[in-house]
Amino acid sequence: MKLIIQIPCYNEEDTLQTVLDDLPKHIDGIDTIEYLVINDGSTDHTIEAAKNGGVHYIVNFTRNKGLAKGFMAGVDACLRNGADIIVNTDADNQYCGADIEKLVRPILEERSDIMIGERPIDQTEHFSPLKKKLQHFGSWVVRKASNTDVPDAPSGFRAYSRDAAMRLNVTNEYTYTLETIVQAGREKIAMDSVPIRTNAQLRPSRLFHSMFGYVKKSMLTIIRAFIMYKPLKFFAVLGSVPFLLGIGTGVRFLIYMYMGQADGHVQSLILASTLLMMGFMTYMIGLQADIIAANRKIIQDVQYHVRQIHYGNKESSVQEEENI
Fold it and tell me: Is pLDDT at 27 greater than 80 in this prediction?
């Protein structure tokens, strides 16, 4: 049983060694533990720090591509290097390395395929009151969109079984955390969470520059993921608003017509027709999107089987450092 711990990095020469020192060297049930660093176009000495720290594999981007692309490149490299379990942690030492065993244990015991570390958000001192509320609200929205009960959706401290990792698809360029939960929930992948500890803050987060930007990007990611996996429901709800307004306006016109006052309310008839047409067209868009979503599921299934073939030989060798 092989575990690869991947660490996305962007200018982390000052913190990477601290993270590496905190990672577990042995876990019962795991035969091999290896480390992989995704260097996301760093301009400092992150690569040298990784090599000096004994990292086994380095995926090197020549320019910054963002967390989502870095995460998927790391998963790809982990699978090609024969990982049975993949753990993702951050390079800012936010998460306690000893808790990796909590993440992998349910996967080892075949009770789950995806494990997410639940941070003590309300007890985290460097989180502002506003950020704590937004974290809870964002997790609630993700739970509703994914039909899951994950309490800490933005947490990047995660473990994936080999099978679950081969099913992952991230289409947005912002972050993988929210979209992968919606995907796993909608595809009925076994997923659970476990309480984990966090360390003191070593540096401010680089994922977003303002709270408004964080909220905007997160909500757009959730909505986009929900549209991808439940398009008919989304557009049906959206189209029901103008359709019901159109019915109400049409009924109002009929009442006036029955009272013999229709001549002064022709605008209501025009508005009702427009609203009904808007609602109907929105629903038709939902039907088309649902057909596209069905095709996407077929493509994802083909992709999964291609990955099984591509990653099937776990003993195949790859380069220690890859330039992307």
Answer: yes
